[in-house]
Protein: Lon protease
Organism: candidate division TA06 bacterium 34_109
Amino acid sequence: MIIDMDEKENLSYESLFLLIDISGREIEQKISLKSLNRIDIVDKFDIDLQKTKIYENEYFVLKSFNREDISGLLLKVLKIENLGERVLRLYVLPVDYIKIKKVIDYHNYKKVKCEKVVFKDILDENKKRGYLNLLRKNFKELSSFYKIDKDLIVKINSENDPFLLSEIVLSSLEIDSGLFYSFVFETDLEKRYKKLLLTIKEEIERKKLEERIYEEVLENIQENSEKVFLKEQLKIINRELGQNVDTGDEFLKLKNRILNSDLSNVAKEKALEEAHRLKSLPTYSPEYSIIKNYIDWILSLPWKRVTVDNFDIKLAKNILSKNHYGLAQVKERILEYLSVLKLSKNSKGHILCFVGAPGVGKTSLGQSIAQAMGRRFVRISLGGIKDESEIKGHRRTYVGAMPGRIIQMMKRAGVVNPVFMLDEIDKLGGDFKGDPSSAFLEILDPQINNSFSDNYLEIEYDLSKVLFICTANVTHTIPTPLLDRMEIIKIPGYLEFEKVEISKKFLIPKIMKRSGLKKQDIIFQDDGIVKIIRNYAPEAGIRGLEKNIQTIMGKRAKEIALGEKIKSKKIGKEEVLKYLGPEDYIERIKEKENIPGVVNGLAWTPHGGKVLTVEAIILEGNGNLQLTGQLGDVMKESASTAISYLRKNYRLFGIDKDFYKNFDIHIHIPEGAIPKDGPSAGITLVVSLISALKEKPVKENFAMTGEISLTGNVLPVGGLFEKIVAAQIDGIKNIIVPKKNRSQLKKIPSKVRRDLKFYFVNNIYETSKILF
């Protein structure tokens, strides 16, 4: 294509060139920087390589526009490369925008008459300079996002031709061909600059957005890569340690366990929170095992599981009768209690406390209640507990922290409504670590135990459905606020005849089965059982009795195993003495004849009642009082009260007015190794003094109990049942008791009362009339 154009040597685009790849009849044109960052500007060019010859430094027109004012570009061929496969690459230099005026056809090519396109430039110098500076400034900002050739930047900063500067900047932008054409077609300089500046500004914002997104993505990638890297390292470490655990899978399993459990909403939220903490910890971390144990404890506790209550009162009555002999009043009270539960459908407000001597069946009564109601039974022994944390748990900040005994037993029960026995609640201690009895104020209060707080769990746990039963030997060691929350049911000691029946119906068959003996191997007689009770196991309970029967059966089993000859299969008094050896408890030595100053008193002990002999002698002296027999302060005060009363009322009893001046008085209670105390011996002390001062013995076969006052009144006492049982065992037939205790005799079995004669007194004078 030959070009005829004026001023064709006026080349102004020396920093730009056009790449044209010619293959067959299709040509791809790209305008590019010398760094070969290319942007398409035209689509196709019609040329036949076989017919057309192209030479270096030749000019030709590239017809690119279908517009009346612009036809295309004037190009100068700078370099030609043969790429093979009939492909040529032309390096051409754009000279100017041209308009074709005339086309002349030759044999193989066309010759055109062109003229340069003159753009509208009506801007004044100040405005033109302003656009130039603004374009340079914006392009400089944009260049921070592009890899721009330094020479190009220098060229842009030095170029003052507004059209040429816009062309240079335009060629550097990464824009699509449509937008590019819109700039090329724009011949109005001011409009071109406005569009160009807007495009550059949008490109800057787009690049900023891309950069921000890239940084965020890169940060996430780096974070995730770091986590992946650390997890991979952790897997390798765990594999080396033999702890090849997939914490992700474990977390999902743990999370599903929590979501599918019956936890309360608060507990579930807490467990999930701890599980998420656990996920981020390595398995070898100490905190990992602490949190894992904590979650396991929460999941192992019952939160909603219950057992269905069985309130068949007849069944309960049969179970109590089958498991326990005697205790009629206690059984009656338990049946009343179960009846109330049946009708009210609510166990709140009912905290039972069985009080009695060791071995009377307090714990087994609780088990019978659980059996009758169809509930599970758990028990903790509180004896010797001094630390409050034993009950309410340790905080998780401590090494080896665990929940308290209450929560541990609830886990063992597996339901929220077990029968929970608090054994030996009177043995609770207290020291600088806290007072455990205070912790039970919350546990045994029906109004607040639905939100029991264990120090380890740190979440509320509902104990309101639990049936608490306490046991104690005495009540005076239980704090008053705690005692006030419980309903006391006193379990008296067993009478001698009751122990005989218990032995024959319960103990002997049970021990015989345990020892492997048969009925024909050993036969216990009543006198043998009584011998064991009186001389080897006189306590109120039956534990000692059971141990001694076990000893006898063990010795009989040994004889059978060795093939020794057995003289008698029966176990009577002589056989008991043979198998058990010397008597552990010798019966109280009774005087053959009554002696002045010797009087029988009745005392209460934790093991049951006891008959005590009070001895008083009068010696010449100057009024000294001597008390022996390891007496407690209360009993010493009773002796002082008795002497003061007799000094005031000496005429009433016919004794010497100045006995407290002229004589020394010695009061002794035998079995001096055993501590003795209490006010109930007051009546016995004053009667012993009257008998000694008058030198006149009391009537035979009498015993007494009662507190005295300075005015001589006989006041009521406790433990009357145990005292009467002790008197019956001792063979005493006459008992003097305070008149205000008369109503309590109704609780004494008729079988006991019919062998005894009771005398009810109001004061010492009435007592003396009976005894002297």
